[in-house]
Design goal:
Mean pLDDT: 84
Largest sheet: 5 strands, antiparallel
Low-confidence stretches: 1-5, 8-19, 422-456
Shape: globular
Order of helices and strands: HEEHEEEHHHHHHHHHHHEE
Number of strands: 7
Number of helices: 13
């Protein structure tokens, strides 16, 4: 009995590792696929030699080894086969799973890089617009005491749905950065486009009809933006320049209405014309943005650099007209249109050989803003007459332009290097399933093959 206790402890220690728990881990390198079922197996053909295949899962043991479990159903009896893989074998197997999924079933490999940004943007849209648009659409105004509770209930319901529906929609589907950018552009710009559409149909439409058009356009353009970006494979940069083009196109349409003198008349008389110009300008801007996206490789930072240049092109000639005390409204409209178009063209040419990072693009925009504030402040201190805008306006524009040029000069070399950089990646990709054609094998054989990938 003296040696019974130590012997029992030794036996318990020997048995303990076999009772340790294993943890299920993803089968692919991207961490998206937790199991391969029968429908997915029919497409990627990972385990063609297993008759009655139903599922495959991968587990990790405490000793860092992996266990590939393959489940089969034969004559109503469930069979499970387990293969022990080393960390290296498991890593190679995961790469092969990823490669097969990308080749045969790409929809199963979800890229959700843009999902957080999309959900945050939709939450803002739900709070700022859907929460009050939905009660208005339903004719619940809350003007009477008995409608107040219904207004609050419908409004909060719209607010919640505006976030929950996108959350569920993107839970098991792709939401790339490009999809998020173009979807949010559609969601927010749809409010304006819906208003223009309502004005095009009936300039005398009531508030409820206008809000309904805005709501439907916002929802429709959100879905449409995501679908188009996914179909055409837009990156965040290419989607961003298309969005910028649409916004500038809307501005061009409104300026055209100013040049035609329609903004000086009544909305009932010129509402259809103004709405048509706004929608046409938006469509033209989107088309121009898509052409720019094809002509140059835009990054997130490039979009900020481009849009800031377009705004400066509109602000500088306007500031000169203000300094000259020009009163003609059409001259202001023409100056905005010509100046913005010119700087947009120059910025596009400039960005064809440069790639600015997202942080660099924000720095360019902020430095331009800071320069404008500094110039405007100096103009206010230096002016002494009764019309301070004559000096403040041009100095604000000059300061903003100076800040833009100076920061671009400091970042130019780095942006050029990023645009002309290239890299080569060489890796060994296994052909694991092809080596598993012998159903009598008890271990997973992995035959590596050479993969070459170059980025210029």
């Amino acid at each position: 009995m003296r040696f019974a206790t130590p012997g029992f402890i030794l036996l318990w220690l020997l048995v303990l590792p076999s009772n340790a728990q294993v943890v299920q881990v993803p089968l692919d390198a991207g961490g998206k696929i937790m199991s391969v079922d029968r429908s997915l197996e029919r497409r990627i053909r990972l385990f063609p030699e297993y008759e009655g295949f139903t599922a495959a899962r991968l587990f990790q043991a405490p000793d860092s080894s992996f266990i590939l479990e393959i489940e089969m159903l034969r004559d109503s009896v469930v069979f499970r086969e387990k293969k022990v893989l080393s960390p290296l074998e498991a890593g190679m197997f995961r790469k092969e799973v990823t490669a097969r999924i990308l080749r045969a079933a790409p929809e199963f490999h979800f890229d959700q890089e843009g999902r957080p940004r999309f959900l945050i943007g939709m939450a803002g849209l739900a709070i700022g617009f859907y929460s009050w648009a939905l009660p208005t659409m339903l004719g619940i105004t809350g003007m009477h005491e008995d409608e107040a509770a219904a207004t609050i209930a419908v409004g909060t319901g719209g607010m919640a749905a505006g976030f929950l529906i996108p959350y569920l929609w993107t839970g098991d589907s792709r939401m790339t950065a490009g999809m998020a950018t173009l979807a949010l552009q559609g969601g927010y710009r749809g409010i304006v486009d819906g208003l223009l559409l309502a004005g095009l149909i009936d300039p005398s439409a009531d508030v409820r009809s206008a809000i309904t058009a805005e709501f439907l356009a916002s929802v429709g353009e959100t879905i449409g933006g995501a679908v188009i970006a996914d179909k055409d494979g837009y990156t965040a940069g290419s989607a961003g320049i298309i969005a910028a083009g649409g916004n500038l196109g809307l501005g061009a349409g409104m300026v055209s209405a100013v040049l035609l003198g329609w903004t000086e008349g009544s909305w009932e008389s010129y509402g259809r014309g103004i709405s048509a110009l706004g929608l046409a300008g938006t469509a033209g801007g989107y088309f121009a943005g898509s052409l720019m996206a094809r002509d140059a490789r835009y990054t997130d930072g490039d979009v900020d650099v481009f849009f800031t240049a377009a705004l400066l092109g509109a602000a500088i000639p306007v500031s000169l007209l203000v300094a000259a005390e020009v009163k003609e409204t059409k001259l202001y409209g023409g100056a905005v249109l010509v100046g913005s178009t010119a700087t947009s063209f120059l910025a596009h040419r400039f960005l064809r050989t440069r790639d600015f990072s997202a942080s660099q693009g924000r720095i360019v925009a902020l430095c331009s803003l800071a320069g404008g504030l500094l110039g405007g402040g100096l103009g206010y201190l230096l002016t002494g007459d009764e019309k301070p805008e004559r000096l403040i306006a041009p100095m604000t524009a000059a300061g903003s332009a100076a800040g833009y040029v100076l920061i671009l000069s400091s970042l130019d070399e780095e942006a050029r290097a990023a645009s002309s950089s290239w890299s080569i990646h060489i890796s060994l990709v296994p052909s694991a399933p092809d080596a598993m054609t012998n159903s009598h094998r008890t271990s997973l054989a992995l035959v590596p093959s050479l993969s070459f990938h170059a980025v210029f």
